[in-house]
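User: I'm putting together notes for a lab meeting next week and I want to include a structural view of one of the chains we've been expressing. I don't have a solved structure, so I'd like a prediction I can at least talk through. The sequence is below, exactly as it appears in our construct file.
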Amino acid sequence: MRKIIFSALLLFVVVFNAQGQDEQTSSDDYSKWQARFRVIAVVPQPGDNLPGAEVDISTTFVPELDFTYFFTKNIAAELILATTKHDVEVENGPDLGYAWLLPPTLNLQYHFYLGDFKPYLGAGINYTIFYGIDEGDVVGMDYDNTFGFSFQAGVDYSFNDKWFLNLDIKQLLISTDVEVNTGVGVLPVEVDINPLVVGLGIGRKF
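Assistant: Thanks for the context. Below is the predicted structure for the 206-residue chain, given as C-alpha cells.
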C-alpha cells in the first residue's frame, strides 16, 4: 500500500511540475520558516526477528510538531519532533511490555509549486532514543539507541498567505539491538521497527 501511495505522489509531481513552474512568480520573496502541527499514525512493520516467532509492535496515534527552514524557495530542511509508546509482544510467547520512542528526524526536502498545492519529497536521518521501558513478563529489556533513515513525500495546500493544510507520509528505517533477560539467560535480538508514519495537520508560514 505504501508503495502505491509513494508512486502516486511521485507521478503527480513529475507530470504537473512543468505546469507548476510556469505559474511561479519571478519574485524571490518567500517565507523562510514554517511550522506544522499534525496528528500522526505510527505503524511499525517489524520483520521476523525471532526464529520461529513473530514480534508484534503496536500502532499508535500521537500529536507531532515540526519546523521547516527554507534555504531557497524549493530547498528546505525539516526537523520532526514526536514521541510514541508501543506495546511489544511475541506471538504465542511472553508479553515484552512497552517502550517509549523519541525519534527526532531531520529531512532535506525539495518543494514544487503547483498553484495552491505544494508537493514535496524528502530524505534524511533520525536518531531513536528508547526510554520509559516496561519489561512485561520478562526480567529485563534493554534497547540500544540507534540511527536510522527517513524517506518522505507530502503536499501542502494553501488557504491563504500564512495558513495551509498538510498531508505527509514517511517511511522510517529503524533497527535496534535488544537484550531480553528471561531470568535464565540473556537473549540478544535485532529488532526491525521500520514504522510507516502518516500525518495530517495544519501549518503556518513565518
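A couple of points you could mention at the meeting. Residues 11-27 have pLDDT under 50 and may be disordered. Residues 5 and 169 are 9 Å apart (CA to CA).

User: Perfect, that's what I needed.
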